[in-house]
């Protein structure tokens, strides 16, 4: 049977990229992937995708190229230079960067790609590993309406809430705001957990009732078991949230917005990382509150 769906190249098969690319394969897309770790390439092939030996090889025949890498330097590394996407993708290709990077990096990439006849969307996501696996991510997009319309079926296979937020860089700006809210929310939950436990209250019962009231949140629902079980296996690493807090504080300074609580939480995330917990899930902000409260870690 001939596949009328666009051919997709996927660059970056990490905690998020692997399940997301697999959801596209399940939706019937032809996906060729490249990443640095061989076992991730093997996983893609086992799921029905095609493993490529380089960025150039992955993007050569693609209609759509999707990147999902940790930060701005990695986006620049795979996009630019003689071995990069812009050099090897065909004119007319749609490049969708789903990484969380600085808004300016997205704006610069769109400009550089335009010279090559390549269209770009910034489309960072929220929802973490669970959201990626369940295909219920929130996708915030920056770019042209026509390109968004073309990409929408792809986004619908990956997420539940898909919104064009404005021109290039807008998706990244909304993502930065998302990360600000999530970090402050996790910190508040962590403080409540330590307060409850030190007061001798049954934590499970307390979180159940808090989750049903105004204090309830997606963060509390998603991270409840992390708090209860002190299970900090990463769905979203502290290292990455540290990077995102840098993005939001820098961007806020640029536009003249004050983030007093965000600045404090950014420092708490930085201190957690300095204590050696950068590889843990961001719910490990609980460990930082425990250290400050003189409790077990």
Automatic annotation (TrEMBL):
Keywords carried by this UniProt record: NAD, Oxidoreductase
Domain 6-phosphogluconate dehydrogenase NADP-binding span(s) in chain numbering:
7-166
Q: Which GO terms describe its biological process?
A: glyoxylate metabolic process
SUPFAM superfamilies named among the record's database cross-references: 6-phosphogluconate dehydrogenase C-terminal domain-like, NAD(P)-binding Rossmann-fold domains
Q: Which residues form a coiled coil?
A: none
Tell me which Pfam families the record gives.
Answer: NAD_binding_11 (PF14833), NAD_binding_2 (PF03446)
| A molecular function GO annotation | 2-hydroxy-3-oxopropionate reductase activity
Matching entries from InterPro entries are given as: 6-PGluconate_DH-like_C_sf, 6PGD_dom2, 6PGDH_NADP-bd, HIBADH-like_NADP-bd, HIBADH-related, NAD(P)-bd_dom_sf, Tartro_sem_red
Looking at the record, the residues that make up the 3-hydroxyisobutyrate dehydrogenase-like NAD-binding domain are 169-288
Q: Which residues form the active site?
A: 175
- Supply the PANTHER family for this chain: 3-HYDROXYISOBUTYRATE DEHYDROGENASE-LIKE 1, MITOCHONDRIAL-RELATED
Instruction: Give the family, as the similarity comment puts it.
Output: Belongs to the HIBADH-related family.
Q: What is this protein called?
A: 2-hydroxy-3-oxopropionate reductase
Q: What species is given as this protein's source? A: Streptomyces aurantiogriseus
């Amino acid at each position: 049977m001939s596949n009328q769906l666009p051919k997709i190249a996927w660059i970056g098969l990490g905690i998020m990229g692997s399940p997301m690319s697999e959801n596209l394969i399940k939706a019937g897309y032809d996906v060729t992937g490249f990443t640095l770790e061989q076992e991730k390439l093997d996983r893609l092939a086992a799921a029905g995708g095609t493993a490529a030996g380089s960025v150039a090889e992955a993007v050569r025949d693609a209609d759509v190229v999707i990147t999902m890498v940790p930060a701005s330097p990695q986006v620049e590394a795979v996009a630019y230079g003689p071995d990069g996407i812009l050099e090897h993708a065909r004119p007319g290709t749609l490049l969708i960067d789903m990484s969380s990077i600085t808004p300016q990096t997205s704006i610069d990439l769109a400009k550089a790609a335009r010279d090559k006849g390549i269209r770009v969307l910034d489309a960072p996501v929220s929802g973490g590993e669970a959201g990626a696996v369940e295909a219920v991510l929130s996708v915030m997009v920056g770019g042209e309406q026509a390109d968004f319309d073309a990409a929408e079926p792809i986004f619908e296979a990956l997420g539940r809430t898909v919104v064009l937020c404005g021109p290039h860089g807008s998706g990244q700006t909304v993502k930065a705001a998302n990360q600000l809210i999530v970090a402050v929310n996790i910190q508040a939950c962590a403080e409540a957990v330590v307060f409850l436990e030190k007061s001798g209250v049954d934590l499970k019962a307390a979180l159940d009732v808090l989750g049903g009231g105004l204090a309830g949140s997606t963060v509390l629902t998603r991270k409840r078991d992390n708090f209860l079980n002190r299970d900090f296996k990463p769905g979203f690493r502290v290292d990455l949230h540290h990077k995102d807090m840098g993005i939001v504080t820098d961007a806020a300074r640029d536009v003249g917005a004050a983030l007093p609580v965000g600045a404090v939480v950014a420092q708490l995330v930085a201190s957690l990382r300095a204590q050696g917990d950068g590889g843990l899930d961001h719910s490990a902000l609980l460990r930082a509150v425990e250290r400050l409260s003189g409790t077990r870690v």
